[in-house]
């Protein structure tokens, strides 16, 4: 499998803690409901899963934000719940309701039935990865992704999104043995899934631990972090083109556990908007020439509802809180990938995203000139 060479590798360089001319950015959920062209394509597809399981549609919507904005990476258009769907839980999306499963995993019998799914059931995802990578034609790198073992378990036990995580936490506290069995299966499934995305052409992969932050201290380390580490330990280090594949871990609400995440076998840690980037850099960013983690994040998505001048001001605050990035191309050092602290809201005006992208690129160039 051969693909066009990259014309913009700024994102991958930042993942590797290499100096860049400016701070690269991409946005969580950048292909999505805030774009009128996405809504038009989704209407054609008839449903969310109709969109995600059709290679042509998935390719089209992945590229839509790149036609509008000079973003530095594309992310596969898919959903974090494809893996439990392939396990036979029956995923569906009701309009305005979010995802739900036909079957739930709440007792010994349901846990006993769980197994790492045949990856052929997810062939539509891997075909989309290859199709998107070809369509990008080297414009920017392509990020593949999965939900974390814990986040998938939340949906599998609750059957849908939750406000209080009562069912999944009840199972975790009452029957930790069952929860560990669910998580072990999930971790091995996620690793196989991400490796297949890498084989299909993904140039970086991201683990979304969207619900890690709902756990108590101690429970996070035992039921989330340990299984994210189990995923990372199994991931391929080299992509189809022979390049290394950076790994990103994002735990929403996880900033207080940064020191616990420091040993993770990944290149990048994502942060939500509650984290201070300067403090995170001091804790895990490392020194010039030494080991460390690249950081990704972390503006509040709701900033995008403010007028463009205020958006630019908030962008500067985020970039300045990280501080001056290192600029020595002969070595590695602390780097930052700009992103939102969580997914973009469907109500975001697209012209406000344009203002954000422009502010990130221009202010981060000015930072380096002053370095």
TrEMBL record:
The enzyme's first-digit EC class, named in words, is lyase
Q: For this UniProt record, give its keywords in alphabetical order, as a comma-separated list.
A: Cytoplasm, Decarboxylase, Lyase, Porphyrin biosynthesis
Q: Where is the Uroporphyrinogen decarboxylase (URO-D) domain?
A: 24-33, 143-159
Q: Does the keyword Plastid apply?
A: no
- The residues listed in the UniProt record as binding substrate, with positions renumbered to this chain, are 29-33, 79, 155, 210, 342
The metabolic or biological pathway listed in the UniProt record of this protein is: Porphyrin-containing compound metabolism; protoporphyrin-IX biosynthesis; coproporphyrinogen-III from 5-aminolevulinate: step 4/4
- Single GO molecular function: uroporphyrinogen decarboxylase activity
Catalyses which reaction(s): uroporphyrinogen III + 4 H(+) = coproporphyrinogen III + 4 CO2
Checking InterPro entries in the record gives: UROD/MetE-like_sf, Uroporphyrinogen_deCO2ase_HemE, Uroporphyrinogen_deCOase
Cite the PROSITE patterns for this sequence. Answer: UROD_1 (PS00906), UROD_2 (PS00907)
Its GO CC terms are: cytosol
Q: Where is this site: Transition state stabilizer?
A: 79
Has UniProt tagged this entry with the keyword Membrane?
no
Q: What SUPFAM superfamilies does its record include?
A: UROD/MetE-like
- Localization annotation: Cytoplasm
One Gene Ontology term of the biological-process aspect is:
protoporphyrinogen IX biosynthetic process from glutamate
So what EC number does this one have?
4.1.1.37
Q: Name one Pfam family in it.
A: URO-D
What does the UniProt function comment say about this protein? Answer: Catalyzes the decarboxylation of four acetate groups of uroporphyrinogen-III to yield coproporphyrinogen-III.
**The protein's assembly and partners:** Homodimer.
Task: Tell me which family the UniProt entry assigns to this protein.
Answer: Belongs to the uroporphyrinogen decarboxylase family.
Q: What protein am I looking at?
A: Uroporphyrinogen decarboxylase
Instruction: State the species of origin.
Output: Acidovorax soli
């Amino acid at each position: 499998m051969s693909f066009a060479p990259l014309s913009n590798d700024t994102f991958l360089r930042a993942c590797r803690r290499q100096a860049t001319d400016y701070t690269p950015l991409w946005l969580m959920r950048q292909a999505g409901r805030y774009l009128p062209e996405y809504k038009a394509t989704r209407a054609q597809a008839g449903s969310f899963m109709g969109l995600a399981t059709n290679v042509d549609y998935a390719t089209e919507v992945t590229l839509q934000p790149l036609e509008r904005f000079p973003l530095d990476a594309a992310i596969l258009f898919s959903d974090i719940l494809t893996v439990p769907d392939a396990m036979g839980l029956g995923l569906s999306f009701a309009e305005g309701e979010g995802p739900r499963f036909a079957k739930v995993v709440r007792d010994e019998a349901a846990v006993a039935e769980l197994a790492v799914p045949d990856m052929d059931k997810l062939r539509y995802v891997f075909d989309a990865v290859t199709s998107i990578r070809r369509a990008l034609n080297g414009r920017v790198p392509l990020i593949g992704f999965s939900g974390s073992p814990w986040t998938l378990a939340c949906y599998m036990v609750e059957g849908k999104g939750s406000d209080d995580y009562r069912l999944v936490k009840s199972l975790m506290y009452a029957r930790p043995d069952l929860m560990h069995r669910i998580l072990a299966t999930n971790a091995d499934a996620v690793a196989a899934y991400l490796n297949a995305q890498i084989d299909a052409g993904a140039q970086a992969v991201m683990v979304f631990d969207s619900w890690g932050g709902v756990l108590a201290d101690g429970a996070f380390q035992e039921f989330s972090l340990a299984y994210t580490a189990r995923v990372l330990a199994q991931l391929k280090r080299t992509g189809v083109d022979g390049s290394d594949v950076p790994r990103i871990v994002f735990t929403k609400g996880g900033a207080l556990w940064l020191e616990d995440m420091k040993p993770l076998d990944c290149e990048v840690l994502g942060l939500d908007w509650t984290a201070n980037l300067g403090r995170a850099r001091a804790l895990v960013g490392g020194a010039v020439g030494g080991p460390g983690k690249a950081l990704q994040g972390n503006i509040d998505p709701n900033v995008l509802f403010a007028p463009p001048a205020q958006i630019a001001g908030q962008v500067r605050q985020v970039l300045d809180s990280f501080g001056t990035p290192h600029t020595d191309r002969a070595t590695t050092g602390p780097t930052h990938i700009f992103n939102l602290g969580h997914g973009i809201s469907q109500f975001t005006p697209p012209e406000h995203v344009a203002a954000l992208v422009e502010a990130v690129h221009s202010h981060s160039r000015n930072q380096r000139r002053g370095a």
